[in-house]
Amino acid sequence: MNNTxxxxxxxTRTGYSAYAPDLPGCIATGKTLQETRKRMLGAMEFHxxxxxxxxxxxxxxxxxxxxxxxx
Length: 71
Known about the structure:
It is a single chain. The protein has 1 helix and 3 strands, in the order E-E-E-H. It is an alpha+beta fold. The chain has one helix at about 35-55; strands at about 10, 15-20, 25-30. The longest helix has 22 residues, at about 35-55.
């Protein structure tokens, strides 16, 4: 199964944090955005693998994220 999940990245006092709204409890942090993205991918892979191993249903992506530039 290959799904695309929305991920929200937010700046913090020490770097960045990230979470996937469709995967409750799946989070990551890092000092840089690049590091946080890499860690979040790993967290999502681990989260989904654990769900499969436990026999839990894999949630379908329902959130859509987009960037909109406003003048």
